[in-house]
Amino acid sequence: MENSAKIIIQSKGLKATPQRIAVYNVMRRLGHASADMVCDELSITSSISHTKATVYNALESFAKAGIIDRRYSPNNKMYFDVNVSDHVHLLDEEGNTFRDYDSPELVELVKEFMKEKSIEGFAPRKIDIQIIGKELV
């Protein structure tokens, strides 16, 4: 897994430091996570030295390079997402957790709608649908 992380990071013109590789691998395991969550996971699973600033900087560099996306939640906390394709999120507003919802039909419907109903002065770059609700246990 480390080698593929290295390849992905380097393919975007970034230096594949041990810290960046560790951060990316944690993000792949978690899927959606805040910098704090990544720090906590690194403390448990990795011997690589890291600070919260190092983790946040790595996540920001990944987001700028298009390796991960940023997600914002109602609790004003930034989360990151390893799935950079057009897709749907379910946000549990009580737990402030995200999960992907596999619905290519919904994404395609929105894409087609945007083609037919263009917005003057606006060029869509990406489809990112977020459905907010409550996780039922």
Note down, in words, how this protein is organized.
The chain is α+β, with helices and mostly antiparallel strands and 137 residues long. It has two domains: 2-81, Arc Repressor Mutant, subunit A, CATH 1.10.10; 87-133, Dna Ligase, domain 1 (2-Layer Sandwich). The protein is built from five helices and six strands, in the order ααβααββββαβ. Helix 2 crosses helix 3 (35-45). 20% of the residues are buried. The mean pLDDT is 92.
SSE layout and pairings?
Blueprint: H1 2-11, H2 18-30, E1 32-33, H3 35-45, H4 52-65, E2 69-72, E3 78-81, E4 87-92, E5 97-101, H5 104-116, E6 128-133
Parallel strand pairs: 4-6
Antiparallel strand pairs: 1-3, 2-3, 4-5
Helix pairs in contact: 1-2, 2-3, 2-4, 3-4
Number of domain modules? 2
- What is the rounded Rg? 17 Å
Largest sheet: 3 strands, antiparallel
Q: Can you write the helix and strand succession as a string?
A: HHEHHEEEEHE
- Specify the CATH class of the largest domain: Mainly Alpha
Cα distance, first to last residue?
Answer: 33 Å
**Share of helix among residues?**
40-55%
Name some characteristics of this structure.
single chain, 137 residues, alpha+beta, Arc Repressor Mutant, subunit A, three-stranded antiparallel beta sheet, three-stranded mixed beta sheet, 20% strand
